[in-house]
Each structure stands twice: as C-alpha cells, then as structure tokens.
Amino acid sequence: LRVEAAAMHLADVKFVSGESGFRFFGVPRWMGEEGVARIEALGEGVDNWQIGDRVFVPRGTGAFRDCACVAAADLMAAPEGDADQLALTMVNGLTAFLLLEDYARAKPGEWIMQNGANSSCGRYLVALARMKGVHTLSLVRRAELIDELRALGADAVLVDSGDPDDMAEQVSKATGGAPVVAGIDCVAGPATVVIARCVAQGGRVINYGFMTGEACHMAFQDLFLREVTLEGMNMMHGYSPEELAGIYERLAGLIASGELKAAIAGTYTLDEFLDAYAHQQRTGTARKGKIIIRPNG
C-alpha cells in the first residue's frame, strides 16, 4: 500500500510519551492507527484487488509511513473522496457511531448531551444523531463555537460554566424540561460531575476520554440520590468483522459525501513529523481540528 493520508490522535501522543494506560505494545512500533491508501503492488494469488484500488490501512498496521505491506484479507475498500477526511473513518467515525447506537441508546425525539463537542468525534455525533432524529445538547468552552455547531445540526449549544448546578438549570431550560437520557463525556475530572448533574434521574454517563488527564469525578448525590450510573466505552463491543465492515462502509459513504465532516487543523509530511506532533499537543484555539500526516506529500 502507498499511504495517502493518516490521522494523528491524542492516543498517538500518549503512546509516544509512554503514559500509563497507553503502553499496550512493545517497541519498536509504527505509529498511526488509521489511514487510507492505494494498492501499489499485489502478492501472488491476490485476485480480488487491483492496483490503484483505494483501501483503508488496517487498524494497528502503523499508517505513518510511505508504504506498508499487509495481508489482502485484512483490507476494506475505501471510497473516492477527500483522503484527509476519510483517514478519520476508523477511529473517530466508529467512536461516534458506537456512542450513539450502543451506549446512548436514545430513541428519536429523546435528548442526549456531550462535552468536548467541538472535537471531530463530537461533530460526527451531532450529525449522526440528527440523522436518527435524536436531539443533542453540546457543551463547549468558547461562545464562538455555538453558531458553528448549530449549523451542523446541534439542537442546543451551551458554554460550560463548570458549575454542575448552574449547568443543570441551563440544560433544563434548553431542552424545555425534557429529560436528558444519556451524557457523553470525553473530558473527565470535574467535567464528569457536570454531565452527571445534567442527566435525568437514573440517567447514564458514558466516558470515552480524559482530556484533563484525570479520572472521572462523580458526586455522591448523583450516584446515591439520583441513581446516575457511569460506564466506559469499548470500541470493539462484540461486533464481528463482517458487521464492522458494514459500519465502516456506511460511515465512509457519509464522509465521502460530506455529510460527516471534520475540521482539519494541519497537514504534514513525514519529514515534518515533529512539527505535527507538537501541533497535536496544542489545545483550544491553538489547534482547531485534526492533524493529518500525508506520508507521500
């Protein structure tokens, strides 16, 4: 495979820095969890692919390199379209899909909420929920993001004050008193308390990240008096390879058509990797979107 584009994620930074919880593999190891590529050469006996076909780089192969040799059986077709956008299908796209379908489990007309809504995953979640008829309330840190997320289809967007009781009141007003059945948290630390206070009695908080670097905080009153539960997310979640392929095909189609779109903060070649790595570590207005590696320029 000749790699066209590969997405850089926070997990890549944490793996390189050796953070606890990200030492899954020994070294040396190629970085880059996902990407898209063109088939450049075929091995003996491969007759179901053609040179020039676009495919997804199999997850875990290590997409931050110009070429990779993989088993034909591990390949999935990728559509034509923006390679930078399609490079985000297998992690952010799948994460948003699973959060909505397998974890939030909201029905059309119900409300869910999330923090970190300006992330690629958050944007995908807004769009996927809108397609399903599920209402979304998104928490952001900057007021200038409100109109941008509303344009993507978010039903309500609020600036997070960090005060759980204040936010619970604001959320209730924004939903017209309708209960929030599930809250999705990628920030952790005190931010989890805010989400937990805003969901309905017996509601659920689903955590899939820790941007603060802290464990999730939960207040006694939410756990004991309001019966709110906290659960984590597992991306594999029991799907067969065939089922995953079907999900990826659907997501890739939505990304190729522009119905799902992520903000791209910067693109870099392999020679510029250290600059890309430094850019990935920035937050807020210093990094507005995803970092993409284009190994072949």
Walk me through the topology.
Blueprint: E1 2-8, H1 10-17, E2 34-38, E3 54-56, E4 76-77, H2 83-86, H3 89-104, E5 111-114, H4 120-132, E6 135-140, H5 146-152, E7 156-159, H6 164-174, E8 180-185, H7 190-198, E9 204-207, H8 220-225, E10 229-232, H9 241-256, E11 264-268, H10 273-280, E12 290-293
Parallel strand pairs: 5-6, 5-8, 6-7, 8-9, 9-10, 11-12
Antiparallel strand pairs: 1-2, 1-12, 2-3, 3-4
Helix pairs in contact: 3-4, 3-9, 6-7
Topology as a string of helices (H) and strands (E): EHEEEHHEHEHEHEHEHEHEHE
Rg over alpha carbons: 20 Å
Low-confidence stretches: none
Count the strands?
A: 12
**Strand-residue proportion:** 15-25%
Describe the protein:
The protein is α/β, with parallel strands linked by helices and 297 residues long. It contains ten helices and twelve strands. The strands form two sheets. The protein has a six-stranded mixed sheet with strand order 4-3-2-1-12-11. It has a six-stranded parallel sheet with strand order 7-6-5-8-9-10, with helices on both faces. α8 (220-225) links the parallel β9 (204-207) and β10 (229-232). α3 (89-104) packs across α4 (120-132), α3 crosses α9 (241-256) and α6 (164-174) runs parallel beside α7.
